[in-house]
Amino acid sequence: MEAAGRPEGRKMEAAGRPEGTRPTGALVFDQLRDVIAAQERVIERQRVAMAIQEVKTVSKDDYDTVVKKLEAEKAEHAKTKSRLAKESEKLQFALGEVEVLARQLEREKEAFEKALSGVQSKVLKESSQKDKLLTKCTEIESRIHKQEGILHVRENEIKELHRIITQQKHSFRTQVSDLRIQKQQERYITQALEKKKKKKKAGTGSKGQ
Questions:
Q1: Mean of pLDDT over the chain
Q2: Which positions ≥6 away from 50 have C-beta within 8 Å?
Q3: Are 7 and 37 in contact, with CB atoms under 8 Å apart?
């Protein structure tokens, strides 16, 4: 009775496990293994019972009943064993698929991390190049502003030179005009003096005759 109660206890333990703690295939495998162990113990007890019955004097009906029961137990044991083999094969196949998927997932993870690292490196490089370009553009803008300031000063200087040149031209023209007038006046005075001298000479000559 004690041996017969053990598989039931194992079944109750298996049934009492928290759901999700082990794969379904593994639970089925454990349960089938417990059933096979229980069936082997039952068969052993039947064999012992048959041996005892062989020693004792029993009726043929009882003997046939025990034999049939033993054969039924053997057939059930064979079915359970076959089912256990199938479930074990399924479990091994599932574990193989899990291992393949795990390796594939690891490869994809490595590829993703490699790609991510490449993208991050590219982003950092482009960000560095952008910062360099911004710095260069700022320097060029500063240089342009400085050159614009110099050009503005030069333009003011050129305007001032133009103003001075224009003023000097006007002054020069005025001086030239004054010089011409002065020369004309001097020429007029010279001519007037010449005429006066000629008249004076002419008057002196007529008195002497």
A1: 78
A2: 66, 67, 70
A3: yes
Interatomic CA distance for residues 88 and 80, integer angstroms = 12
Q: For the chain, give the number of residues.
A: 209
Helix 24-55 / helix 60-208 crossing angle, nearest 10 deg:
170
Q: Where are the domains of the chain?
A: 2-100
How does pLDDT run across 20-31, given as a tens digit for each residue?
455 566 677 777
> Taking CA 105 as the corner, what is the angle to CA 103 and CA 107, rounded to the nearest 5 degrees?
70
CA distance 48 to 121: 77
Q: Which residues contact 14 (CB under 8 A, 6 or more apart)?
A: 27, 30, 31, 34
| 135-144 tens-digit pLDDT | 999 999 999 9
pTM check: above 0.70: no
